[in-house]
Design brief:
Residues 1-24 form the signal peptide. It contains 3 helices and 23 strands. The chain is mainly β.
């Protein structure tokens, strides 16, 4: 019933957004004036900034073709799917209260909450967020999926996927900007339906700090450090990766998501991760890099040893048409590229190198390297077309055909409003 009413509200809101395309400007009321904007979604707010809301979203239609280690039998496979189909409703009430309710209709063919949060901004410069949202860990994860450079985020996040996972639970995060060069956040997330045998929840704690003495589009110098820990008394220590191709799990028949450390039930009870991040941008050129290390502790008396996973990436990008990538200190993240030429758009090329590995004493020593080259066409501020070519190679990791390398092509058409 709730979903039915929500769907009705969404339909009404979208109809209002479409009809509003013919109108723009200021509407006078018996209270504060209302400003309506129709560029990039539908937005209405009072001129005193006390109240406002915005309807936006993103649609990402993907196609992947892959072979070798990306498939179970090594033969070529392909998959077409909606990576994300998100409707976003956000706004402000009584000046100091912000809200965001985002629903993803593209997740495995069903709808689910991408975010449902309320943020209090009255303790300036500190913000307090409560609800369901992704924990804060890493530069590329902080950057919206709309504006990351490659189609998929780096494989280093696969080594410790829980550091950015809301796990359908609830959380609280305190964050803020200090001066013109510091950003920090501290968060706690309580997982849902992930209790141990004693009923204790699997809780996650995240810390992130950013120092950015240069923090504007085309003029960025960014350094960051991250730490995350989760309380859990019993987990299997499994580490696996899609090797930067989402279609490998969308294809449930032949797609391969190889294990770098296999699951061993009930043998591990400690889990933590830390990371480093750095970025530099000068005009249309940018370079960024991240490092992540995860430590998995074996139970006392276990037949297993401690596990360690490490990974890093380096990415270089250049906008051929001269535009700079946007940057926001609040959140410590890159933002969109806005084309100067509304007809020709903006063209960006990039290269990224990913290196990941997992170890457990003399039992596990697995590695992988992934090269990604790509091009992005920002046709306008709403449309982005992307093409990536990926080449992966692994050590001590194979599919059923004994392939330890593979190739993939990924394509995406994105509409963001």
């Amino acid at each position: 019933m709730i979903r039915k009413h929500f769907a009705g509200f969404v339909a009404s809101a979208l109809a209002l957004a479409v009809s509003a395309q013919a109108f723009a400007g200021t509407v006078t009321t018996d209270g504060a004036d209302i400003v309506i904007k129709t560029k990039g979604g539908f937005e209405a707010s009072t001129t005193d900034k006390q109240f406002g809301f915005k309807i936006g979203g993103r649609l990402q239609a993907d196609f992947d073709q892959f072979d070798g280690i990306y498939t179970r039998n090594g033969k070529t496979a392909n998959e077409a799917y909606f990576r994300r189909a998100i409707l976003e409703i956000s706004g402000v009430a009584y000046t100091d209260w912000k809200y965001a309710f985002n629903v993803d209709f593209g997740e495995s063919g069903s709808s689910k909450w991408d975010e449902a949060s309320i943020t209090y901004t009255g303790f300036k410069p500190v913000n307090v967020k409560i609800g369901r949202f992704d924990p804060d860990f890493g530069l590329e994860k902080a950057t919206s999926s709309k504006w990351i450079t490659a189609i998929e985020r780096s494989a280093v996040y696969d080594l410790a996927d829980w550091v950015n996972d809301k796990q359908d639970g609830m959380g609280v995060q305190v964050s803020g900007v200090a001066g013109d060069m510091f950003y920090g956040s501290a968060g706690f997330n309580r997982a849902k339906g992930n209790e141990d045998v004693n009923g204790k929840n699997n809780n996650t704690y995240n810390l992130r700090g950013v120092f950015a003495p240069m923090a504007e589009a085309g003029n960025v110098l960014h350094f960051g450090v991250n730490y995350a820990k989760r309380n859990t008394e019993d987990f299997d220590g499994r580490i696996r990766s899609r090797l930067n191709v989402r279609g490998t799990t969308e294809d449930g028949v032949n797609g391969n998501r190889p294990d770098f450390a296999p699951a061993v039930a009930g043998q591990f009870d400690g889990d933590s991760a830390w990371g480093l991040e750095a970025a530099f941008a000068a005009g249309p050129f940018s370079i960024q890099s991240e490092y992540l290390r995860r430590d998995i502790d074996a139970k006392s008396g276990s037949a297993r040893d401690d596990r360690e996973a490490t990974g890093y990436n380096v990415q270089l990008a250049y906008t051929l048409t001269g535009e700079a990538r946007g940057y926001k200190l609040d959140g410590g993240k890159f933002d969109s590229i806005k084309p100067n030429d509304k007809q020709f758009g903006a063209w960006e090329v990039f290269y990224r190198y990913d290196n990941i590995k997992a170890e457990e004493s003399s039992v596990i020593d697995t590695k992988a390297k992934i090269h990604t080259v790509g091009v992005n066409w920002y046709a306008n501020e709403a449309i982005k077309v992307s093409a990536n070519y990926l080449k992966a190679s692994a050590d001590n990791v194979v599919n059923t055909a004994n392939d330890d390398d593979g190739d993939a092509v990924s394509l995406r058409l994105q509409y963001a409003f």
